């Protein structure tokens, strides 16, 4: 995997405002926050997208995310927040290292804005069956 700003933060080449660190995970404040307390959570394992991440690193992040969300809520006073994770440039990923954003939503016009053009389920039974089968072989 190519060097990214996150790999340089992990190695200490670039400073960050760390909020949590263990052997598998690092969390720090975003340098371009959408709201105060905007926190990034990254695995130390080099993986570009979530599907490339090991089960061990994914589990470590999964155990930590709720605790970090509660901490961000406590410190910012925001009850509402978004957890965002993008995979690939077409999905708006800008840094090609797995990362989760915890973005407080202090008001309607602050934090993350989302447009959600909902569609309709087409042949849902077949799609669910195919995904279910793929899960067992992945």
The oligomeric state is single chain
Series of H and E elements? HEEEHEEH
- The CATH topology is given as HIT family, subunit A
Query: What's the CATH architecture?
Result: 2-Layer Sandwich
Number of helices: 3
For the sheet with most strands, the description reads:
5 strands, antiparallel
Write the layout of secondary structure elements.
Layout lengths: L4 H7 L6 E4 L3 E5 L9 E5 L11 H22 L4 E4 L15 E5 L19 H14 L1
Antiparallel strand pairs: 1-2, 2-3, 3-5, 4-5
In short:
The protein contains three helices and five strands. It has 138 residues and is α+β, with helices and mostly antiparallel strands. It has a five-stranded antiparallel beta sheet, with helices on one face.
Provide an overview of this structure.
This protein has three helices and five strands. It is α+β, with helices and mostly antiparallel strands and 138 residues long. It has a single domain (5-137), classed as HIT-like (HIT family, subunit A), CATH 3.30.428.10. A hairpin with a 3-residue loop joins strand 1 (18-21) and strand 2 (25-29).
């Amino acid at each position: 995997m190519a060097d990214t700003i996150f790999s340089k933060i992990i190695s200490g080449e670039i400073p960050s405002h760390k909020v949590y660190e263990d052997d598998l995970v690092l969390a720090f404040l975003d340098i371009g926050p959408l709201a105060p307390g905007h926190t990034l959570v990254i695995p130390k394992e080099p993986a570009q997208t979530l599907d490339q991440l090991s089960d061990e690193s994914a589990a470590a992040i999964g155990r930590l995310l709720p605790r970090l969300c509660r901490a961000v809520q406590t410190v910012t006073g925001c009850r509402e927040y978004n957890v965002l994770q993008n995979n690939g440039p077409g999905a708006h990923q800008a840094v090609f290292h797995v990362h989760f954003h915890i973005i407080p939503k202090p008001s309607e016009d602050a934090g993350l804005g989302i447009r959600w053009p909902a569609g309709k389920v087409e042949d849902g039974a077949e799609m669910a069956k195919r995904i279910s089968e793929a899960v067992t072989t992945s």
